[in-house]
Amino acid sequence: MTMTHLCKKTVVTVVNGQLPGPTIEVTEGDSVIVHVVNTSPHNITIHWHGVRQLQNGWNDGVPMVTQCPIQPNQNFTYRFNVAGQVGTLWWHAHVSCLRGTLHGAIVIRPRDGTNSYPFPKPDREVPVVIGDWWSIDLAEVDRKMQDNFFDYFPSGSTLNGKLGDLFNCSGVHEDSFMLDVEPGKTYLLRIINAGLFSEYFFKVASHRFTVVGSDANYVTPFTTDLIVIAPGETVDALLVADARPGKYYMVALPNQAPLPDTQTPEPATRGIDRLGNAGNAGKPAAVLPVMPNQHDVVQSLYFHSNLSALQHPRHRVPQVPKRVDEHMFVTLGLGTACRHGGFKCNWDVESETGLVATMNNISFMVPTAPLLPEHYRHVGSQLSTLVELPDKPPKVFNFTDVSLIPVGPKEKKLETTYKATLARWFRYGSAVEIVFQSTAMLQGDSNPMHLHGHDMFVLAQGAGNFDEARDVAKYNLVNPPRKNTVVVPNLGWVAVRFVADNPGVWYMHCHYEFHLAMGMTAVFIVEDGPTANTSLPPPPVGFPTCSNNEYLVPREVSLQTPQHTVSRLMD
Ligand code: C2O
Fold first, then answer.
1. In CA terms, which of 99, 174, 318, 537 is 20 to 30 Å from 141?
2. Domain check: are 291 and 390 in the same one?
3. Same domain, 333 and 239
4. Could you tell me if residue 102 is inside a domain?
């Protein structure tokens, strides 16, 4: 459909005519069936972000990993159970960029009723979906960003699809998201960052939040006036309407790494919290919250360090594995690669190389046939088209040296990389520890890393380089939070553990769309266990197989010519 914002008509792809799309409300333990009827002109899949999908990888919705895309005028029916998870998740298209408008909330309430919430029962529950608005057709952005990645930015940010009164068309304000609250009542905000581009600071003037959950796991409640949420994350927070009757702005401000990082336009959005009968005209103007500086990215580290799993007699949670079978150290950054894989290209010819995003210095290449069915057919053998994600980076250097951000001789020596379909195999039931390290390779961004099919225990995080001798002592092995998306701080690290107990092929990637599209991705292949109960069942009856011509045109991982990067970074 066409939507008009900022004086401009834009073609958007949406579900059932809505942006954000419909909320899926379920009770823990429910099974869910969603019929996707693709009436758009694009290949699409829908991913149920954070849903565990135990032994159900067939319904995870990743094109070329779990299924072939649903083509225009085709249907696909997803079936999954929501078990052992309570709180907020979300769904989105897993097709580059289109998820900017194809997304919605998944609300999971406890089986024994909302009286069993381990926090004061809210009077109302309100999904708050933070997004970004692109004035250009996102399918077009996807195509264009393959050449000139850094020339396309969102034109605005949104709260539940509304740009708010910081934006206007010829002086007429854009609609604002309005939240009407009654004095003294408690509201459970289910906040989701569905944006493609930025982590957000979120505040409501004159109010404090009590954070009670994240990624469909309860957390030990803590109060804060600032919520920091990266793409892919959800945060459940209580808001008590305890201020004086009046109007209060709620603001979502994108943060970004400070100079020498490339600075991009990242506009804030705001909605209005109307307390009491404050909606009438003529009343005093709304109160504004004091926002952190956009560059104060350390606020994200502080916020995320405050999360811990709720210990509660009624809500038993899995314990963090104390013994580790597999240790990995994974660096995240940018680099330069030959367009068609390998190292054999003319590195001096601009059209042959480009900028990519990497894990341990290798950049993901989208496979040409869906991996899960292949894996299923060849259980036990390692698919020959895949390259193993190494357990550590090829070189150790000062990963967070900011002088590596701008292109230069020092950075040049380290940036050479290549593209391959990266995979890491895990024996069923292995306890895996991964330390993710953000690097300063061509940028100082954070990296919200999302693992499909599993929750990760977040043991610790910090600024600078991970130092085993010093940092292992900081691990929280008592009540680490469980997350499907962990923020690797700007020029910092995070340590996680998970148990590879879900046989199948699972995407592991950065949830910034540009990092994902540029290749900061791998697949984690969990082998079958010894029994039927620990193995991947056969594909559902009627699971579509795809012939070659049905495949999504395998995209070249988004490539930006180094020359272009240089000029952008010098600007
Ligand atoms: Cu929310 Cu692989 O995605």
1. 174
2. no
3. no
4. no
Give residue-wise pLDDT tens across range 121-135.
999 999 999 999 999
Q: Which residues line ligand 1 (CB under 6 A)?
A: 47, 49, 92, 94, 232, 450, 452, 507, 509, 511
Domain match, 219 and 148 both: yes
- Structurally, the chain folds into a number of domains equal to 2
Q: 0.70 exceeded by the pTM?
A: yes
Distance 388 CA to ligand 1 centre (A): 21
486 CA to centre of ligand 1 in angstroms: 12
Name the phi and psi angles at 355, rounded to 5: -85, 135
The answer to whether residue 69 sits within a structural domain is no
pLDDT digits over 58-72, tens only? 999 999 999 999 999
What's the CA-to-centroid distance between 80 and ligand 1, angstroms? 16
Any idea which residue has 């010093």 for tokens?
470
pLDDT digits (tens, 9 = 90+) for 386-438: 999 999 999 999 999 999 999 889 998 998 999 999 999 999 999 999 999 99
Instruction: Encode burial over 287-324: b for 16+ CB neighbours within 10 A, e otherwise.
Output: bebebbebeebebbbebbbebebbeeeeeebeebbeee
Q: Whose CA is nearest to atom 2 of ligand 1?
A: 507
Q: What is the distance between the alpha carbons of residues 7 and 10, in angstroms, rounded to a whole number?
A: 10
Residue 164 Cα to ligand 1 midpoint, Å, equals: 27
Atom 3, ligand 1: residue with shortest CA distance:
49
> Residues 377, 240: one domain?
no
Task: State the Cα–Cα distance between residues 9 and 136, nearest whole angstrom.
Answer: 9
Question: Looking at the domain assignment, is residue 426 inside a domain?
Answer: yes
User: Which atom of ligand 1 sits closest to the CA of residue 452?
Assistant: 2
Q: What integer pLDDT is reported at residue 147 of this predicted model?
A: 58
Q: How confident is the model at residue 353 (pLDDT cuts 50, 70, 90)?
A: confident
65: buried, middle or exposed (CB in 10 Å: 19+, 13-18, 0-12)? buried
Q: Which of 271, 305, 339 is the last residue of a domain?
A: 305
- Closest protein CA for atom 1 of ligand 1: 49
Specify if 42 maps to a domain: no
Residue 335 shares a structural domain with residue 288: no
